[in-house]
Input
Amino acid sequence: MITPKRFLGSSGPLPAGRMAFYRLRQVTATEEPASVVGTPVAAASESARAAGAQIRAAQRLRSQRDALSPLGLAVIAVVVFGTFNGHPQPGLEGSGLGLTLALVVFAASLAVAIRSRFIERGVGLQAAVIASLGAASVTLAALQPHGAAGLAVGAAVWMAMTRLPLGLAITLGGATTVALDVALALAGSASSEVVASTLGAALFGLVAYFLKQARESQDRTEMLLAQLEDAREQQTRAAAIAERGRIASELHDVLAHSLSGAAIQLQGARLLAEREQATAKMRDAIDRAGELVKDGLADARQAVGALRGERLPGVNELEALIDSFSADMKLEVTLRVDGSVRALPADAGLALYRGAQEALTNVARYAPGASTKVVLSYGPDHTTLSVEDRVAATGPPAGVGLADVGGGRGLGGMRERLERAGGSMQAGPTATGWRVELEVPA
Output
């Protein structure tokens, strides 16, 4: 039976090569996935933020215009009611026919202009509809000077200022107002009525202009805030990348030097063992130490690459990891995959890979010779990796394994990495050995 003490650290000093190897494992336990340091993610984040600001601006525009649609229907009703109660009245001949046609064109044009999908049309079509609206309003004023033509012209100016670019809106709104003044003057209206109609149209235009400016100002402010957040994020990311590069250089210089020196010393020890005719067991131990140092160098390069934003290992490399442990540590390890295989996020895949690596290292350290089963299960909304070893009833061979090697932080480092990926871990003894279960939401 294997007891929980298997995760406790050693009390004796470690050789230089092994110390560097396990320090590297502690360093890589805190590294972040490459997906958070690369340019593509930054570009995606910026585009998503800007697109969100644009979508919200379009939603505000649509909401504002939808809210004003009932007001447009009310204007149509008031103009129709005022025209039928004015003099002359709409009819089928003479000026009455002109009023009828102008009223129909006005009502149809305004009904089209207040539709929510009208803003999706081209500027040319919108200008044509609003121009017909203004022409119908001026016709109503010319044929029925004392009717509701002033309100109709105000609606045309309002639609021009809110729907069209500023230059075109001023041109069309000004032309409609001037045409109204001319029509009223020719119809014999007093100068005060002409001035009042001019001021009314100007008031409609100014209110519409300021409302449009306020909305556009809000849109620009939100876009500037989004761009500011992007700039701050890029600045923070640049500083983090620079710091990662510095740390990566330090790790490379220190670990590569230490492990390379250890590898050279082990090669010398191997030659010395052959010269002194050392036992086969001692030569095997030296060869094994050399392989561990070689793996440590590979892991060091991988850790440095991770800090520099290179691709990190994931569950796709589990089979190679298991083959390596089976060959180097003489472990009997099997892998089983359940469920539909799918791509996992970089941090989740890395957490499962590192967890399997640490769990297998602990099997070699505390239960050499144990039969180990690794199961990778893809669930509907999560992925689980379990590593379970089973030892014979007599337990692992005495004095064999790596129980006196390591820093004792394997369990804590594994748990911290999984928590950063949003996952969880369970570990504990079973009836025949020890089981570690890792779960990530992916």
About this structure: The chain is about 65% helix and 10% strand. The beta strands are 332-338, 371-378, 383-390, 424-429, 433-440. Confidence is low (pLDDT under 50) at residues 1-45, 398-408. The radius of gyration is 40 Å.
